Amino acid sequence: MGITIKEVAALAGVSAATVSRVLHNNSRISEKTKVRVRSAMEQLGYVPNIAARSLAGKSPRTLGIVLPNNSDELFKNPFFINAMRGISIYAQVHGYFLLYSFSQDEEEEVHFLDKYIHSGWVAGIILLTTRENDRCVSFLEKARFPFSMIGRPENLGNTLWVDNDNFHAMYQVVNHLLDKGHRRIGFVGGPASFRVTKDRLLGYRQALSGRGIDIEESLIFQGKDFSEEEGARGGRELLGKGRMEAFATTDDQLAFGVMEVCRKEGFDHLAVTGFNNTPRGLYQTPTLTTVDVQADLLGRRAAELIIDSLESEDPRRDHYIVETKLIERQSSYRRP
Amino acid sequence: MGITIKEVAALAGVSAATVSRVLHNNSRISEKTKVRVRSAMEQLGYVPNIAARSLAGKSPRTLGIVLPNNSDELFKNPFFINAMRGISIYAQVHGYFLLYSFSQDEEEEVHFLDKYIHSGWVAGIILLTTRENDRCVSFLEKARFPFSMIGRPENLGNTLWVDNDNFHAMYQVVNHLLDKGHRRIGFVGGPASFRVTKDRLLGYRQALSGRGIDIEESLIFQGKDFSEEEGARGGRELLGKGRMEAFATTDDQLAFGVMEVCRKEGFDHLAVTGFNNTPRGLYQTPTLTTVDVQADLLGRRAAELIIDSLESEDPRRDHYIVETKLIERQSSYRRP
DNA sequence: CTGTTAGCGCTTTCAC
DNA sequence: GTGAAAGCGCTAACAG
Prior knowledge:
homodimer; about 325 residues; alpha/beta; Rossmann fold; 3 domains; six-stranded parallel beta sheet; 13 helices; 12 strands; elongated; DNA-binding
């Protein structure tokens, strides 16, 4: 397999225990031996055997990540891969490995978590999405296993989380639409059970009432998922409610669906906005105004939270709010 | 952490060794005890500690995957995430965990492999891409560490690999273009050092000469990478070579670049084809004819090869050729 | 068929 | 400051 601690010890002329101490930067070890041991490790290309370390009671320095597999959202939306990359960057610097798996549904997710936890393979978990009454969250809390999550938890106990200010993001979007002169603005969101949907809906409501505009409940559509099809369904439904001016959606896929319907029905001048800044938005006509949620930064922060909490006894923070960026493109502007 | 083998043994009234034997389906163990042990495991919710198992000389049942981080190809092209999912599906069934990391460049890739190997954390590696004189391949071969790869290796010793028939795929594309009546067809490829580029170029050559068409070397462009910008550069260059009719590219991103240039220069009737079937191709005008390489199946097969070789002494196969699918859309048809 | 025992590589008391 | 020794949970001879 590889060089063991004993071989390093032999070359450096010390005991295995000493090598282990050098490895962990133990304070009471002479500079001289430190140097000697380090050069021995260097020479032999020593890499600690993680299994042994983990067995001996140390953290395996590995994080588990569960990816959803439902829908093709995963592939059309670079959110997850970006988040994974963000996680990877921080994990790398801190010497953590990353384990992943795709799951079909919530039950399977919990199943994976169970395996992760009891296998002794991982020190902590990162959850990339959050539902209402998320079984993963409750499972991890019950097991008292360290984790951090993207998305704000229902009741923040000691939970580590990172999220956008979804309320504010949508508030900003709707105000942007209002600034551009649109008044009768519909809301096309994903499942009502998702916290993001709720927060964004709230932002929508506040933005309108903040400008003294009455909210028409019939202009609020919440789909079964975040797909283009649901977007189309929502768009069609709202177009049936009389003269529309704009659609604030909670996802680019939904927005694409709405745009498609508008095109077909001859309303291609209506404003539409999305969320997530997927590449395709750039190639629509008109180009899609959207919100960049900074998935990589969300991932990085989530990694930061869990790793810091694993490493230090009194971690400095338990959450981060990651800024969103409104990407103003053509689709939100007033067009003839 | 969790239930240990001893606790299971105690409950079942046997020794730890027996439990271990049941775990591994050892033949000479009585049905009765098997049942008893299994129910004990069930009751306690026993999950083997992988670190201990791995330390005791068993395979850690974990695979390492190195993802490229260069360029944003990773995010625009769902190839990798699809391949990862394919891998995950097979790995899951066979009880394998998956480790991943993103790397900046070849050097870092090798660095990761080194860590993977010597950490004792992984039993095998899957490489998702292959360059010419790939340092990862040579590194793994030298270390005699089990791996499988997507892409055909330079010299297939015992290497496990899976690939499309890239020659045939491009051969098919070019014949399709010829069938549609195009004659003066340019080639816009990625870096010449990649095997895929070579194979596809060969397919291009063969298809033309097979129809008795002279190959103009000046119509062959090979870019620095697979980006849209390089595609545009290639497109511009070829448009300077006189009247073109079609462009066979080796990647959708390249194709998008070519289409953009054609549009700008007033040649939007020229045919263009891509590779990889990225979602954006559907939303181009005209919609992009492309080749689906079945990334998920490539991944699944790669996992199959490495896991099978790890599990059995005489694995049945050392490679798979995964079929490609020509997706005929508007961009390859003759337009006024 | 099943139990006993040694040992995988590392960390961690406990001595010195 | 450093070494010796025990032990983490599991597997694999070796006995019986």
